[in-house]
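Sanity check record (used in CI):
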Amino acid sequence: MSSLDSPTPSGGPLEFDLEEIRPQQHVVVCKWDRELVNALLEITSHLYVVLDDYDIDHSNPDWDILERVERVYRVREFDSIEGIASVAADLSLQGVEIDRIISFTEFSQFGAGYLGVLLEVDTHDTMRHVSYRDKRIMKSRVQKAGVQTATWRSVGDRSRNRDVMRVREDLKFPIVLKPASGSGTINTRTVASQSDLRTVP
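Expected output for ATP-grasp domain-containing protein:
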């Protein structure tokens, strides 16, 4: 069985357990983590590591440890479709069938998920990786699970009057505008009234 893992704090629904890894499994790790890579090398020699420029420049990857993995890939960033597709192409051309992809940071979720789709690792839910970063998909799934969330609307293009009018009609002001994807409160704004909606940059 193949899977895409996204470790979460203890007790989370996608908690990653090293005991689930088997020696014959081929595993991709997205992002550098010394302890994780060392622990996986104790279990399987079929380990592939994908690093991005941030890992190289700021995370001090241990090249002695990385010499022990099957292959190391470097992408500009995990949101780079071209970079992730190149990793998938190389693995495919080598005839490697990946059993698991481990993505343990928010910023590697899109890339790891896309890699899983390309390599057919996670075929039962091809949008799962998107739901980790896209607030619309995340809220929709949380609502379907029975968790109450704030009323929200998605605006495709705020220059379209129809899209803006729908927000004005459906939501009570003040409202909070957030980008569909992103982390924390980056580019999040509070809009006090309907007249202020069009003036938001």
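The chain has a mean pLDDT of 84. If this sentence no longer matches the regenerated tokens, the check is flagged for review.
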